[in-house]
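Customer escalation, tier 2.

The customer says the design service returned an amino acid string that "doesn't look like it belongs to this structure." They asked us to rerun it and document both sides in this ticket. The original structure tokens are below, unchanged.
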């Protein structure tokens, strides 16, 4: 069980359920994951606009660790109709960092922020 990921998830879900502004939720998501989970080094949330991917929230806009990371997970962000409207990318510099519980928790987070995006 990944306790840091679960703690970050609780912080994010509290923000979601308080019905905060969607971009505030995105910012809280990236901040909570990077600040609370020691092996998560970068998080970005991209939303689809026409045919482009627009980075709407990131732990660091200047450096996305694309060339430095050893591990990357991508989670679809879907609206209430299960249509993919974006993607949440999580990167780590560690060679082996994520486990099954991380994946399940991060999927839940991506789903929650997607549903909230579609309500705004």
């Amino acid at each position: 069980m990944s306790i840091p990921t679960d703690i970050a998830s609780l912080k994010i879900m509290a923000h979601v359920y308080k019905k905060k502004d969607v971009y505030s939720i995105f910012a809280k998501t990236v901040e909570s994951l990077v600040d609370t989970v020691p092996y998560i080094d970068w998080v970005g949330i991209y939303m689809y606009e026409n045919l482009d991917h627009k980075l709407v929230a990131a732990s660091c806009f200047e450096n996305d660790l694309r060339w430095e990371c050893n591990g990357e997970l991508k989670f679809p962000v879907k609206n209430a109709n299960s249509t993919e409207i974006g993607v949440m990318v999580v990167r780590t510099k560690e060679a082996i960092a994520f486990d099954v519980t991380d994946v399940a928790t991060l999927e839940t987070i991506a789903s929650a922020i997607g549903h909230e995006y579609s309500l705004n």
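Tier 2 assessment: The sequence is consistent with the input. The first helix runs from residue 3 to 17. The helical segments are 3-17, 22-36, 100-119. Sent an explanation to the customer and offered a walkthrough call.
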